């Protein structure tokens, strides 16, 4: 907020604004104690309101205040979120300048740097805008060292000359610091920097003083960074006297660069003391000629010619104090169509939110009101983001404002799916990993069905839509039954016609034609990101597959991959050699791990304890990955693991006496088999080629019923009672337009009285209890802030469930009555590494919890950004 004239900050009275820079607003002020005028820089809110960063700033400002040199603007002190500095009269440095004048100024800049480097201080943001020339012709270097501790605002101009000062955590590996055009190559690559980065910037400043031009510049910040890392310099544009000096300053390899700024004088002495008149006239003439060649070269570059570009790779770490959210939990990289920003999901202090980082900045911005966000996707104009959160499809404007809910009933975590947004304001999305695609206006409104699952093709889900440039055709991923390959289809809005494009690959992304490059379809097969030239008009491939990167992170079921591509030749992905290890482990009610039960290099899920607590049935593997899933048994007493099914099966449920295990199988329905693995399988519910398999979730204590979840094309997931004996005719228990699932009978003895289940009828999943048929009707909402996967304690006096973040174990006291009553939910404990579908299984007494957890997290894998990635296809 601007300060009015007359405002006082301690002994300082604001006189007038001087302007706003990358480090904050600057004012002329009067020091009433010492009767002098000073400059006051008001710190940005993001720094001033963060106690940790402000404390660090104050510590480093004290170090900077120790710089007492005639060519360095003095820092006097700090006063109420303001930096008090020497008021420097004059103008910022501009070129071109005569050679001798440029060298005189350069010598003073070098003296300032030498004084700072002697105290271990690196400027990190040296550029002409930070160099003042006083009326007397003296140099004053400004903002010395502030790049180490301050944050600048984000530019939206796109002009790399005015790109923001990129600041904060300058010593942390992986961060990109400095204004783009003056970055040292190691800064642009996100590596650690030292005083040699200042020497690089010094060389650029001297070059600009002599020529009046930036050495590295491009149409966008991305182009500028690419030039810093790859563009060769024509040294004929600078006088021979300084050529050797500039070559040493501008070595891209810092180990070969001039190591100390004091070497500037020595390098100048190696050259002739003055140039001949002929050279003084030839150099401007050559510079003019090069300017014309450079102009045509710029046009050649901007026109998209492949020969004018190089591949540049930069890595982006998670924001300070946070970690990237695993793709299984909804984290995906999303580049904006204009190539300026990258969106991602990160978790900080237990909150999972949506963040956006400009590619020309080191600071990511957390978007408020996006708690629980998953799977972001951009609007075509790059002004808004769509995302999933807390069972809803939402959108938020990038410039600010609150999130708007567009649709309810959206799955979360590994059961979620991404959306796509076209230029006509249509959003395609999937409500879960087991649904078809729906369409809804981006401003909100009535949703409609966009695709239909084909049971005859074994389809159980349509995922990962991606619009092609015409906004009418789109790509989508078909998830099929176990043992079947994934497929990529092209569909058309308003039509059932579709075209099969690929088999055995994950979600596809399209990179449109750019300059001399064709359009490419990018997809992941077996962890390898692959590009194949593709005509989006005829929907045909025009070339062979080419490897782009390996490996790329994928979801547990390999249905989605963490990569994104923008039309301007920018690719972002998360990759690296990741070894995953999962564990089943016991935890007590305080969240302390008691014992490890089982470890596997793949996901462990759907675990169910036997009634005597001596065995656990579970699935292992990658659900939906095309491999067949089977049920396994772990003997908790002997520590022996054995295979229970051999033709596929999942969602195991024990009979109350432990003699049988029911399970689901795609294309067969619900089956049961003796728990000692003897005898034949028995079909309890026959359903050939289902849209999704019918899923058993519990077996009643009296042994008479199975509780089953079945999906209806019109009403979603419903609860059914399946008699285990007799005619086995299923009975509908609970059906609404919402999804009801994961039902659990209240424990015995005798017939169950209640069923606990999860439903998203209020827009997000909550835990409910209803009475069984034959009991007085009743329904109660148990959770009050979201919840999934309920479990009864053996005495029916407590319910446990997972909170909406799928990491917090909750408990609710139950009074069976009559009448039925329940208490207020309370947190038992939280486990950050919970993973997979239904990772919670309490013991019968609710004193121990068998959890599936991830031992090795992939959340530290950085984002890799590749500029001009198409060039690499030829390399």
Précis, in short:
The protein is mostly beta strands. It has 4 domains: 1-87, 2-Layer Sandwich (Phosphorylase Kinase, domain 1), CATH 3.30.200.20; 93-303, Orthogonal Bundle (Transferase(Phosphotransferase), domain 1), CATH 1.10.510; 324-563, TolB, C-terminal domain (Neuraminidase, 6 Propeller), CATH 2.120.10; 582-854, Neuraminidase (6 Propeller). The protein is elongated, with a radius of gyration of 32 Å.
Summarize the SSE layout with pairings.
Layout: E1 8-9, E2 12-21, E3 24-31, E4 36-42, H1 45-48, H2 51-65, E5 75-78, E6 82-86, E7 91-92, H3 99-118, E8 131-133, E9 139-141, H4 185-188, H5 195-211, H6 221-230, H7 240-249, H8 263-269, H9 277-302, E10 312-316, E11 323-324, E12 334-335, E13 341-348, E14 351-358, E15 365-366, E16 373-378, E17 384-389, E18 392-397, E19 404-408, E20 419-421, E21 426-430, E22 437-441, E23 448-449, E24 459-467, E25 473-480, E26 487-492, E27 498-503, E28 509-511, E29 520-525, E30 528-535, E31 540-541, E32 546-549, E33 563-566, E34 570-574, E35 582-588, E36 593-600, E37 604-609, E38 615-620, E39 631-635, E40 640-643, E41 650-654, E42 660-665, E43 669-674, E44 682-686, E45 695-699, E46 705-712, E47 716-723, E48 731-734, E49 740-745, E50 754-759, E51 766-771, E52 779-781, E53 788-792, E54 798-802, E55 808-815, E56 821-822, E57 826-830, E58 840-842, E59 848-854, E60 863-867, H10 871-874
Antiparallel strand pairs: 1-2, 2-3, 3-4, 4-6, 5-6, 7-8, 8-9, 10-60, 11-13, 12-13, 13-14, 14-15, 16-17, 17-18, 18-19, 20-21, 21-22, 22-23, 24-25, 25-26, 26-27, 28-29, 29-30, 30-31, 30-32, 33-34, 34-60, 35-36, 35-59, 37-38, 38-39, 39-40, 41-42, 42-43, 43-44, 45-46, 46-47, 47-48, 49-50, 50-51, ...
């Amino acid at each position: 907020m601007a300060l009015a004239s007359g405002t006082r900050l301690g002994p300082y009275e604001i006189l007038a604004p001087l302007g706003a820079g990358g480090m904050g607003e600057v004012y002329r002020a009067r020091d009433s104690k010492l009767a002098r005028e000073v400059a006051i820089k008001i710190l940005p809110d993001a720094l001033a309101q963060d106690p940790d960063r402000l404390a660090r700033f104050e510590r480093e400002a004290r170090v900077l205040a120790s710089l007492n040199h005639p060519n360095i603007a003095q820092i006097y002190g700090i006063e109420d979120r303001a930096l008090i500095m020497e008021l420097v009269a004059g103008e910022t440095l501009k070129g071109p300048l005569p050679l001798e004048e440029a060298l005189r100024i350069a010598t003073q800049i070098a003296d300032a740097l030498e004084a700072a480097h002697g105290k271990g201080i690196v400027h990190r943001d040296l550029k002409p805008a930070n160099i003042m020339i006083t009326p007397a012709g003296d140099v004053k270097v400004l903002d010395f060292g502030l790049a180490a501790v301050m944050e600048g605002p984000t530019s939206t101009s796109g002009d790399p000359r005015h790109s923001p000062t990129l600041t904060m955590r300058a010593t942390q590996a992986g961060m990109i610091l400095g204004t783009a055009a003056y970055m040292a190559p190691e800064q642009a690559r996100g590596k650690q920097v030292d005083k040699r980065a200042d020497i690089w910037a010094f060389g650029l400043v001297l070059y600009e003083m002599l020529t009046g031009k930036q050495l590295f510049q491009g149409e966008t910040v991305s182009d500028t960074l690419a030039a810093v890392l790859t563009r060769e310099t024509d040294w004929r544009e600078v006088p021979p006297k300084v050529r050797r000096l500039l070559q040493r300053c501008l070595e891209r390899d810092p180990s070969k660069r001039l190591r100390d700024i004091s070497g500037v004088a020595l390098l100048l002495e190696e050259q002739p003391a003055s140039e001949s008149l002929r050279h003084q006239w030839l150099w401007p003439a050559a510079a003019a000629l090069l300017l014309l060649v450079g102009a045509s070269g710029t046009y050649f570059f901007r026109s998209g010619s492949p020969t004018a570009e190089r591949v540049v790779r930069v890595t982006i770490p998670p924001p300070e104090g946070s970690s990237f959210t695993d793709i299984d939990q909804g984290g995906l990289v999303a580049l904006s169509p204009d190539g300026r920003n990258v969106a991602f999901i990160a978790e900080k202090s237990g909150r999972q939110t949506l963040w956006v980082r400009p590619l020309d900045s080191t600071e990511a911005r957390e978007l408020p009101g996006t708690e629980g966000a998953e799977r972001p996707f951009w609007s075509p104009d790059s002004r808004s983001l769509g995302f999933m959160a807390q069972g809803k499809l939402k959108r938020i404007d990038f410039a600010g404002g609150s999130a708007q809910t567009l649709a309810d009933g959206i799955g979360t975590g590994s059961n979620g799916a991404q959306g796509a947004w076209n230029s006509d304001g249509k959003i395609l999305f999937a409500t879960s990993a087991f649904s078809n695609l729906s369409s809804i206006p981006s401003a909100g409104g009535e949703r409609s069905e966009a695709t239909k699952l084909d049971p005859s093709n074994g389809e159980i889900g349509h995922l990962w839509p991606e619009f092609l440039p015409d906004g009418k055709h789109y790509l989508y991923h078909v998830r099929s039954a176990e043992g079947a390959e994934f497929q990529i289809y092209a569909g058309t809005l308003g039509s059932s016609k579709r075209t099969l494009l690929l088999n055995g690959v994950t979600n596809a992304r399209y990179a449109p034609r750019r300059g001399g490059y064709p359009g490419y379809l990018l997809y992941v097969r077996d962890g390898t990101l692959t590009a194949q030239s593709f005509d989006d008009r005829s929907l045909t491939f025009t070339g062979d597959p080419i490897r782009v990167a390996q490996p790329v992170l994928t979801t547990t079921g390999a249905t989605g991959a963490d990569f994104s591509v923008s039309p301007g030749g920018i690719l972002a992905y998360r990759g690296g050699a990741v070894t995953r290890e999962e564990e089943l482990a016991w935890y007590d009610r305080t969240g302390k791990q008691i014992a490890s039960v089982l470890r596997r290099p793949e996901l462990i899920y759907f675990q169910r304890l036997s009634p005597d607590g001596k065995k656990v049935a579970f699935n292992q593997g990658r659900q939906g990955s095309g491999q067949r899933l089977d049920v396994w048994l772990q003997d908790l007493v002997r520590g022996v693991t054995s295979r229970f099914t051999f033709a596929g099966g999942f969602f195991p449920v024990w009979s109350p006496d432990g003699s049988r295990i029911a399970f689901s199988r795609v294309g067969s329905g619900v089956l049961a088999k003796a728990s000692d693995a003897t005898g034949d399988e028995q079909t309890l519910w026959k359903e050939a080629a289902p849209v999704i398999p019918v899923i058993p979730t519990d077996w009643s204590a009296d042994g008479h019923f199975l509780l089953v979840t079945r999906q209806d094309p019109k009403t979603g997931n419903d609860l059914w009672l399946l008699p285990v004996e007799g005619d086995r005719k299923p009975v509908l228990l609970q059906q609404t337009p919402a999804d009801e699932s994961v039902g659990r009978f209240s424990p015995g003895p005798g017939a169950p009285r209640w069923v606990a289940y999860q439903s998203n009828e209020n827009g997000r999943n909550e835990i409910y209890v209803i009475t069984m048929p034959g009991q007085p009707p009743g329904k109660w909402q148990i959770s009050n802030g979201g919840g999934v996967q309920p479990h009864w304690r053996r005495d029916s006096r407590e319910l446990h469930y997972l909170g909406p973040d799928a990491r917090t174990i909750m408990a609710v006291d139950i009074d069976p009555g009559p009448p039925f009553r329940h208490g207020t939910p309370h947190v038992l404990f939280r486990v950050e590494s919970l993973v997979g579908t239904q990772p919670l299984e309490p013991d019968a007494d609710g004193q121990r919890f068998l959890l599936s957890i991830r031992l090795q997290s992939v959340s530290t894998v950085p984002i890799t950004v590749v500029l001009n990635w198409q060039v690499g296809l030829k390399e």
